[in-house]
Design brief:
The structure holds two protein chains of two kinds. By secondary structure, chain A is an alpha/beta fold. Helices cover about 35% and strands about 25% of the residues of chain A. Chain A is built from eleven helices and ten strands. A six-stranded mixed β-sheet of chain A has the order 6-7-8-3-9-10, with helices on both faces. In chain A, strands 2-1-4-5 form a four-stranded antiparallel β-sheet, covered by helices on one side. In chain A, helix 5 packs across helix 6 and helix 6 runs parallel beside helix 7. The model of chain A has no long low-confidence stretch (mean pLDDT about 90). Chain B is flat, with a radius of gyration of 24 Å. The termini of chain B are far apart. Chain B is mainly α. A two-stranded antiparallel sheet of chain B has the order 1-2. The chains are: A alpha/beta, B mainly alpha.
């Protein structure tokens, strides 16, 4: 089967210009990215500030086009302008700031914005709006103004707005960076459910380690390159390497590593609190 | 809370007037305003007042909300009344004191002009009270659609209006935040004469503009990502369609205009 996202040697350069518009320098934000994502997968892209992860996200939505290399989304070449609308339908995008991506004064109208743009018939828009609001658990708020909602709720509305366009994939560019812990949790839970129940391919771009633990596959980016890839367990087992890319491992893994250093027999790839408690209880039962 | 402010002055209710198609309300308000200038005798004012009273009752908007619309123009109202009162010549002179002359006709004109202005203002305020800003922009878009043919970007203008409405509370909140941040750093917005105070606004206005520009660019990106492509090929989630009651409203309006015109012609007072 063809991969849903297929990047080969993807390069993006931003050029700095002086006041007359002459190029004074070139910033290589992406430097030869290779990535293949299967449909239905939950992928996480990790990276510190300035690692190029947001630039990569914009490429997936054809908001930016490759300087070199190729990127195919759902079999369509993103550098072909004529594909733009189809690519944006196939791979929807959720941005960081919840306020700056909600267009309408009423929740349901905002969710309907995408389908309206696509020319979906009126009755079908209503059906989709209802369905996607229920999917993110915000159906009761459909008549309200987004201004009255919390950050996490607004972000779920933004996700519903994308869901109403019936995409195969949702790209989330640091969707939780501006949220409080409760909002963060609700957004991540929603995203995971969409992946499991609706089979939507998820590409979650973030620098919060805790959000990555449920992913099928993790890419770690730094300086515009993919530096590490693997399952969350494989990646988090290499904590020294992660630290080099200015990323911290999840708290649980950190505690487990500390305990191991003190001589407790714990495997290197602990991801969940329950796992650690289990192992510790067993160790205790064995009387160590 | 500063973010609870409402824009315009919509009064939520489920009355017949609220349920009317917004286009009906815009057109009828215009017709009503024009009708106010179609008569010049007492009976016309009475008819207009009675008609208007019925609309207010139907809309279920409390009278004090409707009357509130007059407050901002009170000064202008008094001013025009004064002008009319003192500078109308002709008719029986009632008072003459220096350059001030008050005539019978002057009083009549003053009263009628003031009434006309009051009707005009509260007439349009009942429209904004019974229609959400979103519906209003929808109505304007649809009513002005013929202008599309002469290359007026009607859809884009309406879209801009509705986005502006959406961002007003956000920017108000932001202004509040910036003000507090500047106050915390020792900014002084309250002392000094008017020029100094205007000057002291710069540390608020500049960050506000910068942030508004950033929001605009973010929003443009988000709209792009959601396949926004201008007005062509777009469908509507809530299309405006005339229903029976809208036709009835037009008929009632036409009836009212007819009565006003006939009254103006045949009633003696």
């Amino acid at each position: 089967m063809k991969p849903f996202i297929d990047a080969k040697g993807l390069v993006h350069e931003y050029s700095r210009r002086d006041e007359e518009g002459n190029v004074t320098g070139i910033n290589r934000a992406l430097d030869g990215i290779d990535m293949e994502v299967k449909a239905g997968d939950f992928i996480a892209v990790l990276g510190a500030n300035g690692s190029g992860k947001s630039t990569f996200a914009k490429h997936l939505n054809a908001l930016l086009v490759p300087t070199e290399g190729t990127l195919y989304v759902n079999g369509m070449d993103t550098s072909d302008q004529g594909n733009n609308l189809l690519i944006r339908q196939a791979a929807g995008m959720v941005f960081q700031n919840p306020d700056n991506q909600i267009i309408s004064n009423v929740v349901e109208e905002d969710v309907g914005f995408g389908p309206e743009n696509m020319g979906v018939p009126t009755e079908e828009i209503w059906r989709r709006v209802e369905e996607s609001l229920k999917n993110v658990g915000m159906y009761e708020y459909r008549k309200e103004s987004p201004n009255q909602l919390s950050g996490g709720q607004k972000q779920r509305i933004a996700i519903a707005g994308i869901m109403a366009m019936k995409p195969k994939c949702i790209v989330l560019d640091e969707p939780t960076a501006m949220l409080d812990p409760a909002g963060r949790k609700s957004v991540i839970k929603t995203v995971k459910e969409l992946n499991k129940k609706e089979g939507i391919t998820i590409i979650l771009i973030t620098h919060y380690m805790e959000e990555v633990t449920g992913a099928d596959f993790v890419y770690v980016m730094s300086e515009g390159q993919v530096k590490m890839k693997g399952t969350p367990r494989q990646v988090f087992a290499r904590s020294e390497e992660l630290a080099r890319y200015r990323l911290a491992i999840p708290e649980v893994t950190k505690i487990a590593n500390g305990l191991r250093k003190k001589g407790v027999n714990i495997p290197k790839d602990i991801l969940y609190t329950e796992e650690l408690t289990d192992i510790l209880l067993k160790t205790k039962a064995r009387g160590l | 809370m500063i973010r609870d402010i409402t824009i315009g002055q919509y009064y939520a209710s489920d009355s017949v007037i609220h349920k009317l198609d917004p286009r009906v309300k815009v057109v009828c308000t215009f017709a009503y305003i024009i009708s106010l200038f179609c008569f010049n005798q007492l009976s016309g004012y009475i008819i207009a007042a009675v008609f208007f009273w019925c609309i207010i009752k139907l809309s279920k908007v409390p009278f004090k909300f409707v009357i509130r619309g007059i407050k901002p123009i009170l000064f202008m109202l008094v001013f025009t009344a004064m002008l009319n009162l003192f500078w109308t010549s002709g008719g029986n002179v009632l008072v003459k004191f220096g350059i001030i002359t008050i005539t019978e006709e002057g009083i009549e004109r003053t009263v009628f002009m003031a009434l006309r202005l009051v009707f005009l203002i509260i007439g349009s305020s009942i429209m904004t009270l019974a229609t959400t800003p979103n519906q209003l922009t929808d109505a304007i878009e649809k009513l002005l659609k013929p202008l599309n043919r002469v290359k007026v970007p009607v859809h884009e203008v309406a879209m801009m209006m509705s986005i502006a409405l959406r961002f007003i509370p956000i920017l108000v909140e932001e202004t509040d935040k910036i003000m507090k941040a500047q106050l915390a750093r020792g900014a002084d917005f309250e002392s000094g004469n008017i020029f100094r105070r205007i000057k002291s606004m710069a540390p608020i206005i500049i960050p506000l503009f910068v942030s508004a520009a950033r929001r605009a660019s973010d929003l443009a990106l988000a709209m792009d990502a959601r396949c926004y492509n201008g007005g062509s090929g777009r469908t509507k989630m809530k299309p405006l369609e005339y229903k029976g009651r809208d036709i009835a409203a037009y008929l009632v309006m036409a009836g009212y205009i007819a009565v006003i015109i006939i009254a103006g012609k045949y009633l003696p007072f």
